[in-house]
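Q: Given only this backbone (309 positions), what sequence would you predict?
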């Protein structure tokens, strides 16, 4: 039976409710000094604010080595009543020092599989997806290494693979590598940040493969995220791909949290949802927030199960 692997255990997909399909409770990178998401009280406040808006599940895409604080996730989930899904995986090389990357050479897929099936470190929390990343309009050697390991972990467990697309680019190259070369079924791949590169042709080509497309995060300065996203989502839905769409908040800095005056997790439901309802209708938006993530993150985790279904 397919279930979603949350930090409190596996749950039936129908119990996810309204889902933020890409966000971060904890995150830290040398690329964002001083903006680390480390505060447990702030994370609790964000989850509580998200629940007040009707949210029931948050999928945290924070991968290996970037401050996941896995042991803090179960109590936060219990205290707020919000399901939390944790990630394994590896981000772009720029987020890590050479020692960390050297430590993972030759064993990356093994680490991913262990965190999916046994737990992250000593926390006992099992990851529910693998997160990797591409580069700007290209896949460098690091991206190919991490994606090959992610594909291996998928074939061992059935876990979905979520991909950070740098500024929304490289979607078709990622699909060529994961689905073409590595044999990952397209419906097990989630492409993130497509909203940051508003190329409707590429978005439609990606959707036609059968993968999921995540439109995540309020706009950064000069990004086309907010004002073009409704048109992009509507075009994909009109083309018959409404069942391939996901929505997320992607909070990555302390300043972006609602408790610090930013949009934070509640923004997805407080502002993005009603804006999309104007363009798409409430029924389709509800489907994108509930039914789609329930399918995207559900896996048959049993040892004899066909996890790629």
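A: Predicted residues:
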């Amino acid at each position: 039976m397919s279930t979603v692997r949350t930090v409190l255990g596996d749950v039936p997909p129908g119990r996810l409710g309204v889902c933020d399909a890409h966000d971060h409770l904890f995150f830290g990178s040398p690329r964002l000094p001083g903006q680390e998401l480390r505060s447990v009280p702030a994370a609790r406040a964000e989850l509580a604010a998200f629940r007040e808006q009707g949210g029931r599940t948050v999928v945290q895409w924070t991968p290996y080595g970037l401050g996941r604080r896995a042991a803090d996730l179960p109590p936060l989930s219990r205290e707020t009543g919000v399901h939390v899904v944790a990630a394994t995986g590896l981000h772009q090389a720029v987020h890590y020092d050479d020692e960390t990357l050297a430590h993972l050479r030759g064993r990356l897929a093994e680490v991913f599989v262990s965190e999916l099936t046994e737990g992250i470190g000593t926390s006992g929390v099992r990851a529910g997806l693998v997160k990797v990343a591409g580069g700007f309009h290209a896949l460098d050697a690091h991206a190919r290494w991490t994606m090959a390991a992610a594909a291996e972990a998928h074939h061992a467990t059935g876990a979905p693979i979520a991909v950070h697309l740098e500024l929304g680019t490289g979607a078709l190259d990622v699909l060529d590598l994961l689905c073409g070369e590595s044999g990952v079924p397209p419906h097990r791949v989630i492409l993130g940040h497509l909203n940051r590169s508003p190329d409707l042709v590429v978005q439609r080509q990606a959707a036609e493969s059968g993968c999921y497309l995540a439109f995540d995060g309020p706009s950064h300065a000069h990004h086309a995220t907010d004002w073009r996203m409704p048109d992009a989502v509507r075009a994909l839905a009109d083309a018959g791909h409404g069942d391939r769409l996901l929505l997320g908040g992607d909070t990555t800095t302390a300043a972006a949290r609602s408790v610090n005056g930013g949009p934070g997790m509640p923004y997805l439901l407080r502002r993005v949802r009603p804006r999309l309802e104007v363009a798409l209708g409430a029924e389709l938006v509800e489907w994108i927030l509930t039914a789609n993530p329930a399918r995207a993150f559900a896996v048959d985790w049993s040892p004899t199960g066909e996890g790629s279904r």
